[in-house]
Amino acid sequence: MLLAVVVTLASAMLLRLGWLQLLQGQENRARADENRIRLLARNPVRGRILDRHGEVLVSSRLIYSLYLQPKDLPPGSWPALRQRLSGLLSLPESQLEQRKRQGPGKQEYRIELASNLSPEQVLRFREQSASLRGAQVDLDVVRSYPHGSLGAHALGYTQPITEGEYKSLAKRGYKIRDRIGRIGVEAAYEPHLRGSWGGQMVEVNAMGEIQRILGDRPSKAGKDLVLTIDLQLQRAAEDALKDKRGGAIVALNPKTGAILAMASRPNFDPNFFSKQVTTQAEYDALFSSPSKPLLSRAMNAYDPGSTWKAVTAMAGMESGKFPPNTKLNTFGCIRYGGHCFPDHNGAGFGRIGYEDALRFSSNTFYYQIGVGAGSMPLYNAALKLGFTQPTGIEIGYEESPGLVGNEVWAAKGRGWAKPGTTPWIPEDMASMSIGQSVVQVTPLQLARAYAVFANGGYLITPHLVDRGLNWTVPPRRTKVDIKPSTLATIQRGLRKVVQEGTGYRMNEAKELPAVAGKTGTAEDSTGGSDHSWFACYAPYPNGDIVVVAFAQNTPGGGSVHALPMARRVLQVWAQQRKG
């Protein structure tokens, strides 16, 4: 009987060993390695973003964070560990519990419990780390924007990747803890900036203490990115917008398309997205704000008002119906359809030509030009100047295409009605002639169009990074089909605006070279108060800089509000030239 018992027990042991080693050997070996070997990830340092002179616009900084490692946490030990961490690091137990529950789940190796730990907290933890099994303090890399909200819409921000994104990005080396560029150049140049993860393979004992390093692969830092932005000009643009409820300023090189400044107001501080913990109330205050601070006004479309008259002038001359020497009588108002469309002075300006019509900003002159030329010639002139189409900027996924209405568009239903129910009417044509109602353009598009007048007839591609390319050759710069006489007439008219017309206040800055430009006051077709515009270039006649200033829902006229904004940017630019 004793022998039978021994044989039975031995047989059971042999069968169990065979089951564990032969049938489940591979799985058990993996579990053993999992208990013995740990993989410690090393964050990549994201590349810096610099201005054209090497000034730092965006960098990264290191912070200490407290993590829970669920795989190292003995069963049932979390309450005691939570209590110890709370007392040791002066952190509320409720916060630790909440962060644990909000963690990414069992498949994730680490759950962040707290961030931005002080040096004192880190020291306290490390003194007791041997008895805090399941917890770890580690270095993290977060994005830093030293100038706060300056250039926020152009620079963009980073955010943690979502679970859905991780499923596709994991194949490209992303981790669940990774951050990715959301808007601006942070998103457009994500592969250039991000770098790649590294890590260590370490052997640990039963207590979780590291015994030896089995392998080490350093993380690879991302590459720095040099923008065409000029920090001084960007700061001047931001300052010029400070007292406006909304608006934008775009400054660019008309010869190459390099963007020197692109500011939008209201704006936001991208450091908000580098915070490790944000409340729902903070998110709602930013994303649900009625002022829409995340919207780039520089790339959103608005009624351009009288800045559009240069386009109407081009259409009139290029159509052949109104050559450069055309002179027309102007009036207090001209009736089209059921409405009498007025001149802004209520009386007209006598018999004038294109140049004086730009100088005085005569509405009734350009009503006659636009209506006489027709909607399609005006639409075609707009196409030549780059309107209703992407500008080519790298962050174009945020860009509105704008609108230039015409009879074909109206016949198709204007984008909201059934075809044939919304015909083109005389009132539309009159409004189109002076950039109202059926015309919507972005400040960036307008800057690109005025660059054509500044550079002698070339349509450029606005860009934020040079990338070592030649931006003065096709397809990045193309010759516009425009007669030399048309171009020269518009250039002279824009110069007269500043010399002795509605843009005369530009001359208050005596240090500026000759400036050519156009003021604009536009009714807001969405029902708000008037917009103010000023588009200009300097020096005349061959410009080195184009500046478009836009003050949203700021009644009073382009010469009162937008012109001083543009002047401030030009003054800084002029000082740089002298230096």
Query: How confident overall, as mean pLDDT?
Result: 91
Number of strands: 23
Poorly predicted ranges (pLDDT <50, ≥5 residues)?
none
Number of domains: 2
Estimated radius of gyration: 32 Å
How does the overall form come out from the CA principal axes? elongated
Q: What is the terminal separation in angstroms?
A: 107 Å
CATH architecture of the largest domain: 3-Layer(aba) Sandwich
CATH topology of the largest domain: Beta-lactamase
Biggest sheet features: 5 strands, mixed
Counting DSSP H or I runs of 4 or more residues, the number of helices is 20
Indicate the percent of residues in helices. 25-40%
Task: Find the CATH superfamily of the largest domain.
Answer: DD-peptidase/beta-lactamase superfamily
Q: Quickly give the structural class.
A: alpha+beta
Share of residues in strands: 15-25%
CATH level-1 class of the largest domain: Alpha Beta
Task: Sum up the structure in keywords.
Beta-lactamase, 20 helices, Penicillin-binding protein 2a (Domain 2), 579 residues, alpha+beta, 35% helix, 20% strand, five-stranded antiparallel β-sheet, five-stranded mixed β-sheet
Tell me briefly what this model is.
The chain has 579 residues and is an alpha+beta fold. It folds into two domains: 38-226, Penicillin-binding protein 2a (Domain 2) (Alpha-Beta Complex); 231-578, Beta-lactamase. The mean pLDDT is 91.
